[in-house]
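This part of the workshop introduces the protein records we will be handling. Getting from the letters to the tokens is the skill we practise here. An example says more than a description, so a record of this kind follows:
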Amino acid sequence: MTQVLPQVCAVLLAAGEGVRMSGPKGLLLWLDGLTLIEYQLRELAEAGVAETFVVLGAEADRLEPWARRFPRARAVRN
């Protein structure tokens, strides 16, 4: 089990339009069959980050459900 570092928070920037990617980068398939946003949130959680603020903008409605899967992630809209 990962030790949670109570004073460490992260900001995950996921507000871009992803124009060159034809959609949000967070939804690209990445490693281990995960989307990029899942992978990033998993890695931050495993590193012990107490809370991650996922900043959403374009396509927020598509990305927010992925962030909600992680109990220590909080989606905020820019």
